[in-house]
Amino acid sequence: MTGKPFPDGEESEISPMPQLEDLEKMANMKMPFGRFQGRALIDLPEPYLVWFHSEGFPSGELGRLLAQVYDIKLNGLEYLIKPLQSPEF
Length: 89
Fold this sequence. Notes:
There is one protein chain. This protein is an all-alpha fold. It has one domain (about 20-85). About 40% of the residues lie in helices and about 0% in strands. It has helices at about 20-30, 45-55, 60-75.
């Protein structure tokens, strides 16, 4: 994922800031496959997200959301997302 180009033409690797709709999806969307299938994206363990970061996130919306969850957890900000979770989690 690339951001805005730097003045010298290089591109940044900074993820775009998540929108409120994305934050709600991270809090309530269930992981659709794998060992942690059924768990909310924000509740995925950090080592699992680090693995995706090194191996590559899935394509599409899921990959974009997982990359944002990775950034949120890396910075210790998941407590900001937890209040958005529905009671089923």
